Amino acid sequence: MEISDLMGVNCVYANLKVNSKKQVLQELARLASETVGVEERGIFDVLLERERLGTTGVGSGVAIPHGKLSELNRLYGFFAKLSEPVNFESIDERPVDLVYLILAPEDAGADHLKALAKVSRVLRDEKICSKIRGSDNAEAIYSLFANGAEDSAA
């Protein structure tokens, strides 16, 4: 599985204007619902429930919210570079400005974990994150994910 299997350039939001963790999740749920064909509220509720288990703010300004939905038949990925960092209750207490949302089918066990691992590897790369932070172009950011995933697998 490649990141390009999870998302297309239309799933990259290069300058998302939000003010809080809740608003990040709401806005991503809204944007994702248009692509996956699931009610926005259902996506938001799954993401909120996952956050109640523990933050998906993994540190270094990165969050990887994720959830499983019975209505899905494949994994989806969405990326947002926030216009301003927000408090995400991250493990390192730093505000978040890079958010990668993963939505998976209920039965996606191993594939869900592989997607999380792949996205995490890319977003742990400081050079890639620096380039993402320096770009407001969705196509360029998508390319960094696609190429970064290939580089990190090598």
Name its key features.
154 residues; alpha/beta; 6-stranded mixed beta sheet; 6 helices; 6 strands
Describe this structure in words.
The protein has 154 residues and is α/β, with parallel strands linked by helices. It has one domain: Mannitol-specific EII, Chain A (3-Layer(aba) Sandwich). It is 48% helix and 23% strand. It has six helices and six strands, in the order H-E-H-H-E-E-E-E-E-H-H-H. The protein has helices spanning 3-6, 21-36, 40-53, 109-124, 126-133, 138-153; strands spanning 12-16, 57-59, 62-63, 66-69, 76-86, 96-105. Strands 1, 2, 3, 4, 5 and 6 form a six-stranded mixed sheet that branches. Strand 2 and strand 3 form a beta hairpin. Helix 2 (21-36) packs across helix 3 and helix 4 packs across helix 6 (138-153). The longest helix has 16 residues, at 21-36. The chain is globular and about 35 Å long. The model has no long low-confidence stretch (mean pLDDT 92).
